[in-house]
Amino acid sequence: MQITAVAGFAAVAFTLIAVPGPDWAYVLAAGAHDRVVLPAVTGLMIGYTLITLVVVAGAGPLLTRRPFALTVLTVAGAGYLTYLGVRTIRASGRVPGAPQAPLASSPGRYLVRGIGVSALNPKGLLVFLSILPQFTRESGAWPLSAQIAVLGSVFVLITALFYVPLGYAADRVLGARPGLTRITTRIAGAAMIVLGLALLAEHVLHDIG
């Protein structure tokens, strides 16, 4: 596989990851409030790895040819983001320094939520289906499945390299500022709700059009 193709996709992937979205909101909420950065980011990585496996297995194109499947995925993703946003806003109302419920700060819970944020994002799947294939070559020495796996791994790696520092920066900057932490958490939660509703509205308007 040509290194230029990998480098080109890496540049595009970094640009896409750097644009604020559901992943940003989730990582900031985790870092600013409960400071569970690594499990949250690991969850995002697992979610994108699952999408990579779906595309490698050839199931991705099958989903895009079935509107009902994409509708279910969109509704599930939008609903999950909205639900997570509501939980994040409610968590921001806790008194700083007060004991929290075990499940609220469980690393495993943040891991699972991270998987849901990325794996249930239909736009993430569409990115893998529409952009990633442009950097593969059917006539290349490597099979297409291997090329997709490499590029998907690059995306997952950049996800970690970008969001881990972002999460720890939120922890470092906001950790000693309870008031600012509450505001940031509420903004992150509101962003998840808006993104979830916007995702659902976009799909509905697309169907109507």
From TrEMBL:
Membrane topology: Multi-pass membrane protein
Keyword list, A-Z: Cell membrane, Membrane, Transmembrane, Transmembrane helix
Principal cellular location given in the protein's record: membrane
Pfam families on file: LysE
Keyword Cell inner membrane: no
Keyword Cell membrane applies: yes
Annotated compartments: Cell membrane
Top-level division of the source organism's lineage: Bacteria
Segments passing through the bilayer: 45-63, 70-90, 110-132, 144-163, 183-205
The protein's name: LysE family translocator
Organism: Kineosporia corallincola
